[in-house]
Amino acid sequence: MTLLNEILEYNKEFVETREYERYETTKFPNKRMVILTCMDTRLLELLPKALNLGNGDVKTIKNAGALVSHPFGSIMRSILIAVYELKAEEVLVIAHHDCGMSGLKAEPVIESMKNRGVKDETIDTLTYSGINIKKWLHGFDNVTESVEHSVGVIKNHPLMPEGVPVHGLVIDPKTGKLDLVVDGYQS
To answer: Are residues 90 and 48 both part of a single domain?
Structure first.
């Protein structure tokens, strides 16, 4: 049985036994908050438990490294939609120690791409088209600085309303301990 078939089989039983009923909520976050965090598998259950969050409490946006890499990309758009349309009143950027994006260099990723069939011509075409693939694939060197950067992009975005606290934190993926980097109430 394939992984997809396992998922579909489980889902069929989940729906038939009405398991979904215990997760019913609205599209508006109970705690009026949107969180940008990393897609790391260790945070799937740990982060909500460490923050005392339940289903329906917050809007959660995930990507590699909890990074806002472009002020007009999909991450920033999602944060703005959460604030303007989904009643989020605060923003949290929560990265984590031991992140795969920490120290990530583009060259090994590009080599892995080539090993899986991406041709040199494709990478050359992207470069010729003005896409700096090495910069695009580069991670960060310091998690605290990365959080400060993402908080700054969000806080100073021309479409972000004044007065929205934007906090920055780093979580330990082993213990769930939070380290405060930016207190959005103070900045």
So the answer is: yes
